[in-house]
Amino acid sequence: MRKISSTRQRKLDRHETKLAALLVLFATVLAFVAPRFFGAANLSLLARSMGVLLIVAVGMLNVIITGGIDISAGSILAVVSVVLVRLGNHGMGAPYALALGLLTGIFLGAINAALIAEFRIPPIVATLGTAGLFRGLLLEWTQGEWESSIPAWLNAWGRPRWGGLDASVWTAALVVVIAAMVLHRTQIGRALFRYGDSPIAAARVGISRRQPIYFAYISLGFLTALGAIFYAAQLGAVQGNAANGYELTVIAAVVLGGADILGGRGSLAGTFLGVLLLCSLQQALVLLHVETFWQNIATGAVVLAGVIFSAAPSYRKKIMLRQGSPA
Amino acid sequence: MSSTASTFPPNSAPDPQTKRTPLFRPAGNLQPGIVATLILFFCLYAGYRSGDFWSALNWRLLVQPLAEAGLVSLGMMFVIASGGIDLSAGSIIGLSAVAAGLAAHHGWSVPAIEGIAILSGLLCGAFNGLMIGVLRLSSILVTLGSMILFSGIALALSSGSSFAGFPEGLLWWNDATFAHIPVEFLLFLGVAAIAAVLLQRTLWGHYVVAIGSNPVTARYSGYPVALSTFAIYSVQGLLCGMTGVLMVARLASARADMGQGLMLMAIAAVVLGGAPIEGGAASVLGTVTGVGAFYIVQDGLLLLDVPPFVQHALSSVLLLVAVAFGNLLRGKREDGR
Fold it and tell me: Which of A153, A274, B130, B255 could form a disulfide with A94 if both were Cys (CB 3.0 to 4.6 A apart)?
């Protein structure tokens, strides 16, 4: 039986370490199979593809840490990108359109939070409902038509700048830094972990039942809106059906990064590595001229492997719990 | 038939003082009843506003997609009752439809086409069951992965295109009626009856609910948790395979993305029928009510000339309102959430 582990052993046991090792292995294989992967052009493309996903994934991480889940993130992304593009196309100035877009995201996130915190609807059901609601209203509004041109200022946001990387990459980096500070250095950040671990225990030590929920879902709404800006800017055209199923990719990236879907556990480093793994896998398969559906198969297999892989330590803990030894 | 399988009969000592039951004692779960009442009023209104609502043709067109969604919902009911969730249901339907398409393309006989479609659904479900039941992984994560995996396999098998040219024998499922009722719907009712018996009259049904209400206790009680969970997901896969066959028969084509909307629809239907998403209780009657409510409302709104996308939004509102009301009626939960 395992003895109490040393700090060093724990560090090796950490999910992030294993995930990083997996990435190194993957990179080594790629170096032989597709050396072009490490060219500057490809790496900047990779960074570009990671930006939006990482921004939204940080928001999803907040939600998953509280033990919740948000199925409506893809719908919110679509709503905000259409709002933004339509306002811009009607001649509204960039600062106002951006502010209204971000407010829309915050508002939609607040609706989710209110349903969960006030009406006590389980997160998966509440966001399942709002996903259909937001998407339905958006499709009615756009009548399924494409917004095939986007305002010039928004277009500029999608172009590479500042060292070959576009604004989404820099924003994502900023978001990760701020989120790291909020999650680990503020009361509300610590409250998210406490609440996710056990809402009852959190209530006993004086953490509000509502605050962590509102914070998590509103921050996801805000970050999704932020992601939507770059999503629209990069695509150059938006449509009511945009980002359908995007939330599942985001959730896959976050859980691949070691976040516990039951709440209370998750890290930004892991989320970053999860996003990196998913995106570099996609990118590598594109480089190797693999057809799209094989990319799906590979992504699914990687997610499943990640689930098995990350379950191993907690499985051991569960066995210990079952045998009644102190965990 | 009691409305939920998990409620134990209360301790009923024959006390003359309390023998008279109060008129409005909330017995079991009220949610299916509330939903059914709302739908009844909706039907009356829709019938009043649109002459076509009560026509035989409308109901015929209504019950066929209802039967397909109903089969998936019944499978999802077992999954949710055991405290799990199946995000891969839509992909399994797509995969089994593509399997049917491939078999038809190679000129297989009708029973062989049906068999291969149902078998591929069963295999997908068994794969989920193996990961969730035997390896004890989280159901939401496993099915998230297998959803992407199965739809990838379906796309790869069909090269992203759709199949057509199915034999007449297969299309029988769409055309045939018995006493003016489409056989598809009768099949659904039959499966629902079997599901009710399985849930309430068999040990397996008892295990399913027990696993959902407390997996640790179920394990301590010596219940075959791994095997039962494996069976739950296999049954779900089997029902998804059947749905795939029915959809192929109705649409006379097969595509990899055919089951897309049905997964969320099935979860919503089960929850609308009053089953808690955390598991531990389920009712066939509730599930049938839930899935019926969705399709009746959508069909009615269509006849009332409500724009199609608003119909979609209103179905979601129905789900949210019903669950919020159910919560209010059930009162504060013990942990105060």
Answer: A153
Locate the chain B residue with the closest alpha carbon to A308.
B137
- Rounded Cα distance between B86 and A187, Å, is 35
Residue B144, min C-alpha distance to chain A (Å): 7
**A175 within domain boundaries:** yes
Residues of A in contact with B314 (CB under 8 A): 136
* Dihedral Cα A45, A46, A51, A54, nearest 10 deg: 170
Q: Are A109 and A222 in contact (CB under 8 A)?
A: yes
Contact list in B for residue A131 (CB cut-off 8 A) is 264, 316
In a domain, A10, yes or no: no
* Cross-chain CB nearest to A303 (options B135, B144, B151): B144
Number of domains within chain A = 1
Interface of A with B in 152-191 (CB under 8 A): none
Query: Residue A67 domain-assigned?
Result: yes
Domain B31-327: which CATH class?
Answer: mainly alpha
- Which DSSP letter does residue B181 get? E
pLDDT in tens, B244-260: 999 998 888 888 888 87
What is the pTM assigned to this prediction? 0.83
| Residue-range definition of the domain harbouring residue A115 | 39-245
Residue pairs spanning A and B at CB distance below 8 A: 161
For A101-152, the DSSP string reads: HHHHHHHHHHHHHHHHHTS---HHHHHHHHHHHHHHHHHHHHTT--B----H
